[in-house]
Amino acid sequence: MIDITLENFQADLIDASMNQPVLLDIWAEWCGPCKQLGPVLEKLEVEYAGRFTLAKLDADKVPQISQQLSQMFGVRSIPFCVMFSGGQPVDGFVGAIPADQIRQFLDKHVPGAEELEAAQHEEEATAALAEGDTEGALEKLQHAVATDPSNDDARFDYIKLLLQQGRSDDAKVAFAPVIAKAPGVRRLDALQRWMNAIDFASPPAGKAPQIADFDAKIAAGKRDFEARFGRAQVLMAQQQWTEAMDELLEILMRDKSWNEELARKTYIAILEIIEPPKPKVAEGQIPPDDPTVATYRRRLSSVVLS
Fold first, then answer.
1. Using CA of residue 161, residue 301, residue 211, residue 189, what is the dihedral sign?
2. How far apart are alpha carbons 16 and 197 in whole angstroms?
3. Domains of the chain (ranges plus CATH)?
4. Which of 31, 106, 138, 163 is catalytic?
5. Model pTM?
6. Which residue out of 34, 37, 81, 118 is catalytically annotated?
């Protein structure tokens, strides 16, 4: 629990809520219902085990803040609780309401225990990859997905790492629960296009397509877009990402809308796949873009807008 003053308002409430929800309890010494609500909130903070922070603000000692929030929400009485998230007041409730109602309020804004556990597994996976422990990272990401199946970011990282290791069958199993929503989620759609390219390059029966075959067709006709796209798919399967995007750009320079913009959509999918996690930087600074991703984004914009 934190007592909020004018001095720590920015750091301990606004800035802190960028990383974790903060519930601000506005109270006063003379307020009977406030004294009833306070212990309930403190017990809930313990019960939720660090999933939110409880902050208290004495309305008489810091009227500048309490009055501003009261006006913002149109509230004239206390106790008045305001949930801060992402640096903003997002919701609130008035009065010494029962604990069950407060839990319902909290559950709308506070991450579940599964989400936090999955996030921890993701952090551990990132650390494992940084140390070159691919199997350890896969294990942590697998735990993250199992703990919080709705975490699309963890699932993306898990499937991406499986595909990078050539484990396409395992990747398809992990992808199956989200296949229906993949077309509407850019990162998942990118994985689907990558797996389609792998299937194209390694058909279960018949001869696998060869780069040389596509080169011959392209030499015979620069506008043979099927050949160019086939060549790009084989390059994707081989994880030769920049070469694949170069080939897709050849299509886009000649026909931006070919095959319902298939080249552009596949190009964007590759950018999604190859973009590394943003490095952590000091507060107020903007993390630098990956140079390869930035270069190929500019190339795409130049072609599409020309």
1. positive
2. 44
3. 2-110 (3.40.30.10), 114-178 (1.25.40.10), 186-275+286-306 (no CATH)
4. 31
5. 0.70
6. 34
The owner of tokens 């929400």 is 73
User: Annotated catalytic, 34?
Assistant: yes
| Residue located via tokens 């936090």 | 116
Amino acid at 306: S
Residues 122-134 have pLDDT tens digits of: 888 888 888 999 9
Phi, psi (deg, nearest 5) at residue 82: -125, 130
**Whether 31 is catalytic:** yes
Structural tokens at position 27? 């109270």
Q: pLDDT value at position 306?
A: 79
**Of 165, 180, 194, 13, which is closest to residue 87 (Cα–Cα)?**
13
Which residue do the tokens 């350890």 mark? Answer: 136
* Residue 184: Cβ within 10 Å count: 8
The enclosing H or E element of 24 equals strand 22-27
Residue 48 has which token pair?
């939720």
How many C-alpha atoms does 98 have within 13 Å on its Cβ side?
2
Length reported for the chain: 306
Q: What is the DSSP track for 8-21? A: TIIIIIIIGGGTS-
Exposed / middle / buried, residue 237 (Cβ in 10 Å: 0-12, 13-18, 19+):
buried
